[in-house]
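S1.2 Input.
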Amino acid sequence: MATTEQQQQQQKIEHVHLRVRGLTLHVAQAGKGELGTVVFLHGFPEIWYSWRHQMLAVAAAGYRAVAPDWRGYGLSDQPPEPEAAGFDDLVEDLLAVLDALAVPKAFLVATDFGSMVAYDFALRHPNHTCGVMSLGAPFVSDRTSFNTLPEGFYVLRWVQPGRAEADFARYDVKRVVRTIYILFSRSDIPIAEKDQEIMDLADLSTPLPEWFTEEDLDVYSSLYEKSGFRYPLQMPYRSLFKRKPNGDAKFQVPVHVVMGEKDYVFKFPGVEFAMRDGGMEKHAQDLKITYIPEGCHFVQEQFPDRVNELLLGFLRDHPVAV
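S1.3 Output.
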């Protein structure tokens, strides 16, 4: 069970619902923002709660922490046409959230597909961006090709209409979220054999990561029971190949990439080149890369103190006039 201290800390996080672009989006926030605003952008299978440790840390340091649930996720509305999902909608949603909160400029801290939105936003709206910290996702200018990976690679399975839906439907939502969290916490890319589905790669005897509690699982599961998986399968998976390459991208803001060396994404085509062979340097003049040796895909939950230290250092290194 959550400790009394943890419960008291969580009470410092406020929840609002903002009407933006025809949808009501849920936003968690904490802190007064004397030193500026930090916006946290989640990935899959995450929600605002993924950033609970970082929100409290930046709020205590004098910043305003803002963590929305993307459209179609958590407590936010479902879009009317999930199959029309695109990254541009999330960029515009983010701009509308900042406007609704009267935040002219913010730091963006993101993970997983949230990092793609953060990068796109920073490139299109540098005047609204103080800097970008991405966890586990470097900027890759070309469209990622998965042709070198087997047919059982989870992304290739989930982009197939109906494939993941049928796989997930065999179990309740809690079992699905549990399995995905376990698979994404490993250092190997989730790949099924021809006679398997992705959900077959772990069962109830497989333990949760030691840093992820049953109470955490209950929070995630309750919100995915509300949202379902219809939109999350569209965004990001079935929208990935709609993204246009941006080989000429030049960031006008500082970028800090934090990579867990045991994050399975590190094995994706193009990621190691972007991180270690100069792929990102041509796009970001003010670039910092930090590796966390034992870090997995959910490094902000696995090693919250280390990530908080890096994040607060990034914020201190780039003070803004408020």
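S1.4 Remarks. Residues 159 and 237 are 6 Å apart (CA to CA).
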